Amino acid sequence: MKSALQKAEDKVKRASDALTKAKDDLLLVRKSLKVECSCGLQHSLGELTLTITHFYVEPYGYHGDYWTESDWYFVCPSGGYKNRLLFNDYNIPYEHRYELGRGAEVTFKHLYRNAFICIFPEYSKHGVQSAHNNVWIDNHRKDFGLPC
Ligand SMILES: [Zn+2]
How far is the CA of 81 from the centre of ligand 1 (A)? Predict the structure, then answer.
C-alpha cells in the first residue's frame, strides 16, 4: 500500500512526464512550421540550418571588448541562399522592444532557437554579405504564435 507521500510523488512524476511529452510535441509542431525561402519554395524550420551572427563591440572605458548576438539567417537546403530573418518591431517603444511576448523578434528567437536542425554561430567584424532579407515570418506572426 502506497503512503500519502508516495502517492503525491507519483502524481508529480506523472504530471512532469506529461509536461515533458507536451513540450516535445510542441517542439515537433514548431519544427514542422514552414517559411517561404528566397528560392521560392517553403521549407520546414526543422530542415533548416540556422546561422546566428555576432558582432564585435570595441572595448569602452573599463569594459572589455565582447561579441554580441545579432541577426539570424537560415540557409536554403536546395540552393544555399542565405535568408536574413527580419522583424519590424519599430512600432514598439525601444525600452519594450526586447521584452518577451511584446517584440516579435525577441519572442521568435526565444521560442524557435531549438526548432532548427542545427545552429552555426558566426563571428564577423564585417557583417554578413549577400543575403536575402526575409520578412515572411514577420508577415505571418499569428501562424508562429508571435505578438501581432
Ligand atoms: Zn530555399
Answer: 7
